[in-house]
Amino acid sequence: MADKKKDESVEVKSSGKLKWIILILIVLLLLAAGGGAAYYFLIYQSDDQAEEAGDGSEGAAAQRAEAIEQAPLIYHQLEGFTVNITAPGPARFLRVKMTVVTRDEAVVAALDKHTPMIRNDLLSLLASQEFATVNTPEGKDALREALKQSLISILTKAGEPAGVDEVLFTDFVMQ
């Protein structure tokens, strides 16, 4: 009988220790799951968002381009240009005032910043025009496109945003 009590007390002690071990394992598993969840939501997802943004290059550029496409038009008036037309014809002078159409404020700032370079290149382009060509609607359209491409080229060379949508003539006189 004494042996039975001894066996029961040993079983009670070992089952008490077993309950504590199981309880500790459950608590450790819960802590590990909570830590894993915290890592996933705080660290892992922020890394995914940084990769989606391209660490400030591709993703940010795409977001900026999308925002610019939805922005309202900005009209920026350039100073007037008066040039001698060197090609033979009835007109000897060409006076042009133009407005640059963009959706990006940074382009307007870049146009103001690089005005001397822009004026130099556009004066050369305008002076090389022929009266017979520029006197037609198609010639004016071609000149507007050439001016637009010239502006884009100048801004790109300067490392500035070059989002020029259109070049509009506000004054066009040949004498």
UniProtKB/TrEMBL annotation:
Listed InterPro entries: FliL
Signal peptide: none
Membrane-spanning intervals of the chain: 20-42
Pfam families: FliL
Keywords: Cell inner membrane, Cell membrane, Cell projection, Chemotaxis, Cilium, Flagellar rotation, Flagellum, Membrane, Transmembrane, Transmembrane helix
Cell location: Cell inner membrane; Cell membrane
A GO cellular-component term linked to this record: plasma membrane
Entry membrane topology: Single-pass membrane protein
Keyword hit for ATP-binding: no
Family according to the record: Belongs to the FliL family.
The protein's role, per its UniProt record: Controls the rotational direction of flagella during chemotaxis.
PANTHER family listed in its UniProt record: FLAGELLAR PROTEIN FLIL
Protein name, UniProt field: Flagellar protein FliL
